[in-house]
Design goal:
Strand content: 15-25%
Number of strands: 17
Strand order of the largest sheet: 3-2-1-4-15-16-17
Number of helices: 12
Distance between the termini: 33 Å
Order of helices and strands: EEEEEHEHEHEEEHEHEHEHHEHHHEEEH
Shape: globular
Structural class: alpha/beta
Largest sheet: 7 strands, mixed
């Protein structure tokens, strides 16, 4: 047994932190979590005294794309099948996933990949063949002709990319595409309820992509097989149709109406706002070449924080998701999204819950992860400081010195004198070694 004594324990459930807490780990599982007073470790237990640290549950980034890195020179990942071997694509996905784990995000949810590389990577990690975070994956995202994820819109007529695609233009297409994804063992289904590409030149913000009948067919098949449905959307009738169809998670949702937010609160629909792309773009001074895209992003940036604030006030379940792979949004930067949620009106504790317990519920993994409780998997993050006072410290990897997954150290950046022998030495990891300068860039 390994026993961690910490100065402060935040268990992810939103309650009052435990000052002078203890977490006891037996194999891969938490055996005890709570006050140190009154707890007597077994005689053979190995104890680490970490009084100046705060302990959190392993964090969750519930909206990433491991296909792309988010680096500013990585701009062609949506056409990667035409330029790279499938194995090369998979290696890139692995490195991006590992950056999340090294930053304390012990679980991620991938929102559409290529060639089912996400499924293969998840399975290899679960089998212990590769080091990486827990992954929930959707395989191919479902789109419509000329839709947000229809890659043929980038080419002239008749040009296609290799590999499977999931363009659906009616209920029968939709049922077939869902079943194809289920055949490969996906964890959930990703669709596009709205898009903005076709209306931006006319000053529009959103238009429906899939019909109500198509989305209803998708939800019926997915729900019959125990899978949630997540929908890319921004606003308008397409969002209303998605709620009518029974979509479980709305992604982005920049321009949600009060009525739509109230429906989400009543039905328990999750909102994963992904504030990072527009926020990072503003910080980095990124301006798209297309003036219509730039104008749309400016309007989205002006609305998104207020929308999240209204959703939070209405009782909608807010989930932390960075949209890593978008320009400037690198993997391992999910804590930046948490800071944006605070900017939108969530408290730091709310943001932590959005990245732990609520995200675990969204991933259908709340029985296993998302909080520091007896019986849960021992996914834990040690923080040098108090994230309730400054949520921003989670973006500094030097302030996130220790990460455990399943009770095993997967990242140890503590000062050498604080590292305990034996269990404290991490198993050799396949994660990329990065200098302090590089690590800071990946936050």
């Amino acid at each position: 047994m390994l026993v961690l004594r910490v100065g402060c324990l935040i268990d992810g459930r939103g309650g009052r932190p435990v000052i002078n807490g203890i977490v006891a780990i037996e194999d891969k599982t938490i055996a005890y979590a709570g006050p140190a007073a009154g707890y007597v470790p077994p005689p053979a237990a190995e104890t680490w005294d970490l009084p100046r640290y705060t302990l959190l549950p392993g964090l969750i980034d519930a909206h990433v794309h491991v296909l792309g890195s988010g680096e500013l020179d990585d701009t062609d990942w949506f056409m990667r099948e035409a330029t790279e071997l499938p194995a090369s694509i998979a290696f890139g996905c692995l490195l991006n996933a590992q950056r999340n784990l090294q930053a304390g995000f012990t679980a991620i949810r991938d929102l559409s990949c290529r060639q089912y590389a996400d499924v293969a990577l998840r399975d290899a990690i679960n089998a212990g063949r590769l080091e990486g975070p827990r992954m929930k994956v959707c395989g191919l995202g479902l789109t419509s002709t000329a839709g947000h994820m229809d890659r043929t819109t980038h080419f002239t007529v008749g040009v296609a990319l290799p590999g499977p695609a999931a363009v659906v233009d009616g209920p029968d297409d939709a049922r077939r595409a869902v079943r194809m994804n289920l055949r490969f063992g996906v964890d959930f289904i990703k669709i596009n309820a709205t898009l903005s590409e076709l209306v931006r030149p006319r000053g529009g913000l959103y238009s429906p992509e899939m019909t109500l009948e198509t989305m209803r067919a998708i939800c019926e098949v997915a729900h019959a097989h125990g899978r949630k449905v997540a929908a890319h959307c921004h606003g308008g009738i397409g969002v209303t149709w998605a709620l009518d169809a029974g979509v479980d998670v709305l992604e982005h949702g920049r321009f949600l109406s009060d009525e739509q937010i109230e429906r989400m609160a009543r039905s328990g629909t999750f909102l994963c706002p992904t504030l990072s792309p527009e926020a990072r773009g503003a910080e980095l001074g990124l301006r798209p070449k297309d003036p219509h895209v730039a104008a749309w992003q400016a309007r989205a940036r002006a609305a998104m924080y207020e929308t999240v604030g209204r959703a939070q006030a209405a009782g909608v379940a807010i989930v932390n998701g960075s949209d890593a792979a978008m320009p400037g949004v690198v993997h391992g930067g999910g804590a930046y999204e948490m800071a944006q949620l605070v900017r939108a009106g969530l408290t730091p504790m709310d943001a932590i819950v959005a990245a732990t317990r609520t995200a675990a519920r969204c991933l259908d993994a709340a029985d296993e992860i998302g909080s520091v409780e007896a019986g849960k998997s021992a996914d834990l993050v040690l923080v040098d400081g108090d994230p309730l006072e400054d949520i921003g410290i989670l973006q500094d990897l030097s302030r996130v010195p220790l990460v455990l997954k399943d009770g095993r150290v997967v990242a140890d950046r503590r000062p050498r004198q604080e590292q305990a022998p034996g269990h404290a030495v991490p198993r050799r990891s396949t994660a990329p070694r990065e200098s302090g300068k590089s690590e800071a860039r990946h936050v």
